[in-house]
Amino acid sequence: MANTATNYRNNGTRSSLNSKSSSSSFKSKVSPASSVSSAPPRRSSTGSVNSLKYDPGVPGRVRVAVRLRPRNAEELASDADFADCVELQPELKRLKLRRNNWDSDTYEFDEVLTEFSSQKRVYEVVAKPVVESVLDGYNGTVMAYGQTGTGKTYTLGRLGDEDTAARGIMVRALEDILSEIFPETDSVCVSYLQLYMETIQDLLDPSNDNISIMEDPKTGDISLPGATHVEIRDQESFLELLRVGEAHRFAANTKLNTESSRSHAILMVQVKRSIKGRDAALSNENGDKSHMHRTLKPGIVRKGKLVVVDLAGSERIDKSGSEGHTLEEAKSINLSLSALGKCINALAENSSHVPVRDSKLTRLLRDSFGGTARTSLVVTIGPSPRHRAETSSTISFGQRAMKVENMLKIKEEFDYKSLSRRLDIQLETLVAEHERRQKAFQDEVDRISVEAQKRIDEAERKFADALEKERLKYQNDYVESIQKLKDQWVMHQENVVNERGKASVISASEQVTEVKLLLEKEVSLRKHAEEELSNLKYQLMQRERSEAAGSSEILKLRKTLEGETRQKEKLEEEIAILQSQLLQLSFEADKTRKQLDQNGDLNVPNGIDSPVSQVRNQQLHDSGHGEKASVAKLFEQVGLQKILSLLEAEDPDVRIHAVKVVANLAAEETNQEKIVEAGGLASLLMLLSNSDDETIHRVSAGAIANLAMNAETNQELIMAEGGIGLLSMAAANAEDPQTLRMIAGAIANLCGNDKLQTKLRDEGGIRALLGMVRCRHPDVLAQVARGIANFAKCESRASTQGSKSGRSLLIEDGALSWIVQNANNDASPIRRHIELALCHLAQHEVNAKDMVIGGALWELVRISRECTREDIRILAHRTLTSSPTFQGELKRLRIGYN
C-alpha cells in the first residue's frame, strides 16, 4: 500500500531490482563492455549542443557520467507505442533528449554509458580513477544521482553474490584497495551510515541513531566521531558488513519502485598507507641490524578517504503515490536534494555564498563539491517518455556539477610513532652493545690483573727458594771450611808434637801466615755470597717496581677508556642535536616554500613585470616575525658551512633537506652573498651534475634561480661554471612540471643580463627554454615566456645602443613560431610576456621581414588595438608606424593603419 510505514530490510542483500523494478534489466541486458576511451571530452562546435566550455585537463573538476537504464517490464507494456525520450551517442560522449518527434536537446558528458554497459566498465570509467587517487593520499567521492528506480543502488551497492560480474562500485572499490595495501603497515577502516529524515544513523549499530557532525575549525574537515569504524582485512568481511548495513537501511514500496530507498546511504572508507620507511621499520622490529646506521628520518603516512554516496531517488508525489509517513520521507529526501542542487549551482556560478549549512547532506558533502576531494558523479536516467521532466532535471543537475572545480590536496604526515619505535629499538641495541663491551673490558682487566698477580707470586716463590738454597749452600760451605781448619790445626799440632825432636824447617810465623791466608780466603768467599744476596734482593725490588708500574699503566688505560667513552657519548649527543636542528630547519624551510608557492613564483628576474617584492611582502605578512626568527636562529646555531657540507652527504634524504634549507636561505638577498662566498653555488651546480634525484634537481634549480635573481656577479659566475649546460641537461631529463618551472625560472633570470646574451645562446639556453614547452603546464609556459621576453628586451636595448646589428638570436633558434602561437594565450601571464617579446623583437628593423613571414604582423596589429595594458599597446603602435617594412606590408594588403 502507498501509505505503508517505512520498514527495515531484513534480508542480507538488497533486492531492489526485481521483475517490476525499473532497473531490473541491467543484468539481463548487459553485453561485454568495449575498452574505455582515454580521449578527453569533445567540445561541441554547434550552437544547438548544450556542452560545457571546460578544460578537460583540470584535475580537480567534478567528472560526470550518465548511465541509461533499459526499459523494465512495466514500461515495455505501457510505453510500447512511444519512442524513448533519450538517444545516446557514446562514441561522441553525447546525449540527446527529445522534446518532440522533430526537435531535441543535445548534451555532452565525460562518459555516456548505454543500457548495455557492464558493471565493470561503469566502475573503470567512474570510480577507478577516484580509488587510485585515494590510494595516493587524496580524498575521493563517488556519488549516484537520479530519479527513483533508475538504478543508483544497482550501480553502487550490488553485492553480486549470484554473479560476480554484477558487483557494484562499492565491492569493486574495496577489492582494488585491499589488493594495493600491506597489512603489516597499512590499514583500511570502514563506516556505513544513512541520512534519514535529517538524522545520521549508523547502519552497523542501529542503536546509534543520532550521530553529530564535527567540523575542524582550522582545516574545515568534516568528521563523524560517533560513527562505528570497522577495520577491514579481507573482501569477505567487507561483504558481510555491507549485508548487515543493507538489512538496516530504510526502504518502502511505491508506484515507481517496489523497494525504494528512503534514506541516503554513505559508505566511508579511510585508507592509511605507509609510503616510506616500511621496509626499514619491519626489518628493525625483527632485529635486523643492517639498518642501524641509517639516518633517523620518519616515514611518510598518506591518509585518503573514499566516500561512496547512494542518494535516495528524487520523486514526484503524484507519480510515486506516497502517503502518510512515506510522504514525509519523500519531502525530506526532496528537500535535501534541493539543498544539494543549490550548493552546486552556487559553486558553478562562482557565487560568494554557498549554502552548505542548509542540510546535513550538503555538510557531509562539503569536501566533495568545492573542497579538496576528487569527485566522480554518475547520473542515472530512464528511457520512458512519461518521466521526461525528471530525466531533464537529472541531466541539468549533472551539467551544473561539471562546472564545479575542487582543489585537490594530498594528505600525508610523518610517521613519528614508527620513528620512535625504531629509535627505542636502536637505543636498546646500543645500550646492550655498550654493556657487552663494558663487561668484556672489565673481564679482560680482571684477567690481566689475575695473571699479573700469579706471575708476581711465582717470581717471589722462586726467588725465596733460590735465596734459601744459596744461604744453605754458603752456610754449609762455611761450616765445612771451619771444620777443615780445625782438622788442619789439630793435625798441625800433632805433627809439631811428633816431630818436635826433629829439626823443624817451618817456622811458627809461616804457619800463622798460612792460617791468615786461609781465613782471608774464607772471608772473601763470604763477602762474595753477601754480594750475590744483595743482587738477588735488588732484582726482587726491580720486579716489584715493574709490577707497580704495570698496575699504574692499567689504571691509566682505564682512565683513557673512560675518557674516550665520555667523548663518544658527547659526540653522539652533538650528532643527534645537529640532526634535530637540520630536520627542524628543513621543516621550517618546507613550510616557508609551500607558503611562497601558494602566493606566487619565487624565481622571477628583476626585469619585466617582476613580482619579487610582492611575493616577499606577502611572505613577511603571512609568516610573521616568529617563523623568520626561528629559521634565523636555527641557521645561526647550525652554521652555513655545516649546512653546505651536508650537500655532499651520502644519505639522499640528508642532501634533500640540506638543499631545501639552502634554497630558502637563498631567497633572502642578505644571505646570497654569504652562500656564494662559502661555495654554495658550486655545490648546487655539482648536485645538478651528479645527482639523479629529480627532487634535488628541482630544489637546486630553485636555489640557483634565487641566486641569479638580482646580482649580475652571481649570474656571470653561474655562466662561467657551466650553469646553462647543467640546467639544460636537467630540463631534458625532467618530467615533473614543478621541476621544469624552477629550471625555466633560473634560465629566465639569466636571460635578463645584457652581457650574457651570446654565451647563453651558444650554450643552448634558448633551445632549453623552447624544449620545456612540451610540458604544456601553464606555470612552465609562463616562465618560458618570461625568459623569451627578457632576452628580447636585452636584444632591443642592445640594438638601440648600436651594439647589435644582426638578426635576433631568438628568430635564428626558431622561437618566433611558438611566440606567434601563444601571443593570444588564455593565460594572462603567458600572453603579457609574449606580447612584450613581440614588441621588442619588432624594434629592430632587421627582424621585420621574418616577422611578416611568420605571421607576427597580425599579432602586432591586434596588440596595438586590443591589449589591456596601455604601455604595451602604445609600444606596438609606435613599432608599426615607425617600421618601413611593416608599413609597406600593410599598404600592400590594403590595411589602413595610422
Would you kindly provide a written description of the structure presented here, covering whatever features stand out?
The protein is an alpha/beta fold and 898 residues long. Helix content is 56%, strand content 10%. The strands form four sheets. Strands 3, 7, 8, 9, 10, 13, 16, 17, 18 and 19 form a ten-stranded mixed β-sheet that branches. The chain has a four-stranded mixed β-sheet with strand order 2-6-5-4, covered by helices on one side. Strand 4 and strand 5 form a beta hairpin. Helix 12 packs antiparallel against helix 13 (508-599). The longest helix has 92 residues, at 508-599. The chain is elongated.
How would you concisely characterize the structure shown here?
By secondary structure, the protein is an alpha/beta fold. The strands form four sheets. Strands 3, 7, 8, 9, 10, 13, 16, 17, 18 and 19 form a ten-stranded mixed sheet that branches. It has a four-stranded mixed sheet with strand order 2-6-5-4, with helices on one face.
Describe how the helices and strands are arranged:
Layout: E1 7-8, H1 25-28, E2 49-50, E3 63-68, H2 73-78, E4 86-89, E5 94-98, E6 104-108, E7 111-113, H3 119-135, E8 140-146, H4 152-157, H5 169-180, E9 187-196, E10 199-202, E11 214-215, E12 222-223, E13 230-231, H6 235-247, E14 250-252, E15 260-261, E16 264-274, H7 278-285, E17 299-310, H8 317-320, H9 324-348, H10 360-364, E18 374-381, H11 388-401, E19 412-415, H12 416-498, H13 508-599, H14 612-638, H15 640-645, H16 652-666, H17 669-677, H18 680-690, H19 694-707, H20 712-720, H21 723-733, H22 737-750, H23 757-762, H24 765-771, H25 778-800, H26 809-812, H27 816-821, H28 828-842, H29 848-853, H30 856-866, H31 870-882, H32 884-892
Parallel strand pairs: 2-6, 3-7, 3-18, 8-17, 8-18
Antiparallel strand pairs: 1-14, 4-5, 5-6, 9-10, 9-13, 9-16, 11-12, 14-15, 16-17, 17-19
